[in-house]
């Protein structure tokens, strides 16, 4: 991610505020972004939506704190493990949204029922344990479960999303929860469900990733948290 550090810090704060305003993170969860020289920018061990620029911390590739006043999150290992095996992933969100917990409990991955889910059409594997990811061995297991996908669901716990940039992270973080919610809604009707075909997913992905579509999405969410 080629972006000056100060701008990146401001964006991480904005991302956390948007995710909090939309109700997908509460007092827990964390956001990180890859920095040059194998460093990682991270929200500290505090409610992410309440973090200010001065609270952000910088970690080395193993999660050891290099700069900042706050302490690393207990589940930092999940982030460091994913960054090590996924050079394409530039930022990560981990959260505990109810919809993701509900879906993972049924053993179902995200089904692409709405256009909000097309980013996840290659699958959202489920890490089959509720234990918090507090050491590198567990981090490696989550990274292995994620594989080359965009998101992993953690049974009884939440979900983790990896993105190319922070705008995309907001979008996928919200769309994953929305997709889970729609899936739960349709399941409650007890009727057969139509799922997007691979071609429909790919066609919609091209539209959804267009700059103007993305701009509109971000404009709305930024306006909701900025006076
Ligand atoms: Zn967690």
Description of the molecule:
With 227 residues, the protein is α+β, with helices and mostly antiparallel strands. It has a single domain (5-225), classed as 3-Layer(aba) Sandwich (L-fuculose-1-phosphate Aldolase), CATH 3.40.225. 42% of the residues lie in helices and 15% in strands. The chain has helices at residues 5-21, 76-85, 98-105, 136-146, 166-188, 198-208, 211-225; strands spanning 30-35, 39-42, 57-59, 65-67, 91-95, 126-127, 151-154, 158-163. The chain has an eight-stranded mixed sheet with strand order 4-3-2-1-5-8-7-6, with helices on both faces. Helix 4 links the parallel strand 6 and strand 7. Helix 1 (5-21) crosses helix 7 (211-225). The longest helix has 23 residues, at 166-188. It is globular. The two termini are 28 Å apart. The mean pLDDT is 95. Zinc ion binds at residues 75, 94, 96, 132, 157-158.
Observed structural traits:
binds zinc ion; 7 helices; globular; L-fuculose-1-phosphate Aldolase; 8-stranded mixed sheet; single chain
- In CATH, the homologous superfamily goes by the name Class II aldolase/adducin N-terminal domain
Ends distance: 28 Å
CATH fold group: L-fuculose-1-phosphate Aldolase
- Report on the biggest sheet: 8 strands, mixed
The small-molecule ligands in this entry are:
zinc ion
Order of helices and strands: HEEEEHEHEHEEHHH
Please give the oligomerization state of what you see: single chain
Structure class: alpha+beta
Whole-number tally of structural domains: 1
């Amino acid at each position: 991610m080629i972006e000056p550090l100060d701008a990146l810090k401001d964006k991480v704060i904005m991302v956390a505020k948007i995710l909090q305003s939309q109700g997908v993170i509460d007092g827990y969860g964390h956001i990180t972004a890859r920095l040059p020289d194998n460093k990682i920018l991270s929200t500290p061990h505090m409610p992410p939506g309440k973090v200010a620029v001065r609270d952000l911390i910088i970690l080395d590739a193993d999660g050891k704190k290099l700069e900042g006043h706050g302490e690393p999150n207990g589940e930092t290992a999940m982030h460091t493990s994913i960054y090590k095996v996924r050079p394409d992933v530039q930022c990560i969100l981990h959260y505990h949204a109810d919809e993701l917990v509900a879906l993972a409990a049924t053993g179902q991955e995200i089904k692409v029922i709405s256009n909000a889910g097309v980013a996840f059409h290659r699958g959202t594997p489920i890490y089959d344990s509720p234990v918090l990811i507090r050491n590198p061995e567990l981090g490696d297991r989550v990274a292995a479960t994620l594989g080359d996908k965009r998101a992993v669901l953690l049974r009884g716990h939440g979900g983790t999303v990896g993105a190319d940039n922070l705008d995309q992270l907001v979008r996928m973080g919200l769309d994953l929860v929305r997709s889970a919610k729609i899936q739960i809604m349709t399941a409650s009707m007890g009727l057969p469900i139509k799922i997007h075909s691979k071609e429909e997913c790919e066609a919609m992905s091209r539209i959804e990733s267009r700059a103007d579509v993305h701009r509109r999405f971000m404009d709305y969410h930024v306006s909701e948290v900025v006076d």
